[in-house]
């Protein structure tokens, strides 16, 4: 059985392996021991804190295979981004150049540096080992964050964002990067990627263009990938779009991948989740349910058919094995969604 729980210091070796496996471009989980240790300590503090509004909290979860004890995935939520270290994007706009005398009207696309998402919550750091990418595990790893947010809404902002990895070539270098490197940064992509990953972002404000950039002046290769996602990221984007996330024109500075957003209460899995009492008994459900307890520091979530919801009694029947993993007893409350519903 797979179970989601808050990360602990003992998970450092597993998190480092995931950081290595995830490869370049996964800036929220860099292969950097000090930064990984900081992220774990920050998460432990965040789960333990008494919070009534979003602030500088980061909730990092790990997916554990209970049969082996192996950590096979990770997923996370930042409560409020950009409060201490600015979160930059390019905003896509259209400006009009008009000459009545010449009867000329030109609509020109631009990119403008901004930090409009300051204070928003961000879902991030989603990674699942390839051998486990089956039987709803990926859907569960994504959606479990919404169960946690639905149960503890005061910990999060009303707006939720997700930054999607942009298009890259066979060497992992974004086509969008080349013009930026040549004109403004003069460092290679792996170096910039590493600096972002370890939290050293001051060079963005110091070196990035401060005025709107006319898209038509960029190389054709760069223009073509603005707002596109990496091939491996398409399933994740499709899943978030089904949850109600939409792209409003904001893209990443370095790979031009889209940032998508949704209102917390409008996210499908938040709105459709149900909180009900639990009764522990032998049961074999027909649907695959994702179920979470209502704790913070001792949060647990799992999925499977060892559960069945009885709408007449408003009870969630849990098998003893599922209840044990979730640390639940009869009379406790749990929150769940149906993973079979697309």
TrEMBL record:
InterPro entries: Acyl_CoA_acyltransferase (IPR016181), Arg_succinylTrfase_AstA/AruG (IPR007041), Arginine_N-succinylTrfase (IPR017650). Transmembrane segments: none annotated. Gene3D superfamilies: 2.40.40.20. One of its GO terms (biological process) is L-arginine catabolic process. GO terms for molecular function: arginine N-succinyltransferase activity. The keyword Acyltransferase applies. Pfam families: AstA (PF04958). Keywords: Acyltransferase, Arginine metabolism, Transferase. Its EC number is 2.3.1.109. NCBIfam families: arg_catab_AOST, arg_catab_AstA. This is Arginine N-succinyltransferase.
């Amino acid at each position: 059985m797979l179970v989601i729980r808050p990360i602990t210091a003992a998970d450092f070796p597993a998190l480092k392996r995931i950081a290595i496996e995830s490869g370049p471009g996964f800036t929220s989980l860099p292969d950097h021991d000090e930064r990984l240790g900081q992220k774990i300590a920050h998460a432990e503090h965040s789960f333990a804190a008494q919070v009534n509004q979003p602030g500088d909290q980061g909730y990092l979860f790990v997916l554990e295979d209970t049969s082996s004890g192996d950590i096979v995935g990770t997923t996370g939520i930042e409560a409020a981004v950009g409060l201490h270290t600015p979160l930059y994007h390019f905003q896509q706009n259209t400006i009009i150049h008009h000459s009545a005398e010449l009867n000329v009207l030109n609509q020109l696309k631009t990119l403008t540096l901004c930090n409009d998402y300051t204070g928003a919550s961000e879902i991030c750091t989603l990674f699942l080992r390839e051998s486990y990418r089956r039987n709803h595990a990926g859907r569960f790893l994504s959606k479990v964050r919404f169960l946690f947010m639905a149960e503890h809404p005061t910990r999060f902002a009303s707006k939720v964002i997700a930054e999607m990895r942009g298009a890259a070539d066979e060497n992992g270098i974004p086509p969008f990067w080349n013009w930026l490197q040549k004109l403004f940064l003069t460092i290679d992509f792996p170096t910039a990627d590493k600096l972002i990953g370890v939290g050293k972002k001051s060079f963005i404000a110091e070196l990035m263009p401060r005025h709107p950039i006319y898209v038509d002046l960029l190389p054709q290769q760069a223009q073509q990938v603005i707002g596109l996602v990496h091939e491996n990221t398409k399933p994740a984007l499709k899943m978030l779009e089904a949850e109600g996330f939409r792209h409003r024109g904001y893209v990443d500075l370095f790979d031009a991948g889209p940032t998508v957003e949704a209102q917390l209460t409008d996210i499908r899995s938040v709105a459709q989740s149900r909180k009900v009492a639990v009764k522990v008994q032998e049961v074999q459900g027909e649907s695959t349910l994702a179920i979470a307890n209502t704790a913070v520091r001792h949060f647990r979530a799992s999925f499977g058919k060892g559960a069945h919801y009885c709408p007449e009694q408003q009870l969630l029947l849990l098998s003893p094995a599922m209840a044990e993993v979730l640390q639940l007893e009869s009379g406790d409350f749990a929150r769940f969604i149906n993973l079979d519903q697309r």
